């Protein structure tokens, strides 16, 4: 018995599944693990193993990025607080000439704060079924919103105070 490269590749993908998410039918999400016929037994949709794998790998890559959303948002909140502290500090001490410099830095920090906070919004791109496999603590929209608001207020503060 001999195989073409394409067949070998197909068998490799099927038998050595290296993505932490299960292989699922793109139509009905039926678990295709170990199936030999490239047709979903649940809904009859034909599939190709390399495509099933690519889909799972893409979803997992996205999930990995979102996984760190809470940490990102927490760092964002810290950045925003430090930024606020800095722009108030130079004003309270009356360090006039340094104010402009600090404000410019604070604007960058503010932008970073908003971006870090916005990471929690990426959860919407992860399909619902995949979320169950990824999170010990799911992304907190509240934490993200807090970082984003802090960042925006810092922008306004640096520009107007
Ligand atoms: Zn199906």
Observed structural traits:
161 residues
Order of SSEs: HHHHHH
Overall pLDDT level: 89
- Give the N-terminus to C-terminus distance in angstroms: 79 Å
Number of strands: 0
Could you tell me the radius of gyration in angstroms?
24 Å
Class from helix and strand fractions? mainly alpha
Overview of this protein structure:
This protein is mostly helical and 161 residues long. It has 2 domains: 59 residues, no CATH class; 93 residues. It has 6 helices and no strands. The longest helix is centred in the middle third of the chain and has 24 residues. It is rod-shaped, with a radius of gyration of 24 Å. The mean pLDDT is 89. Zinc ion (ZN) binds next to loops.
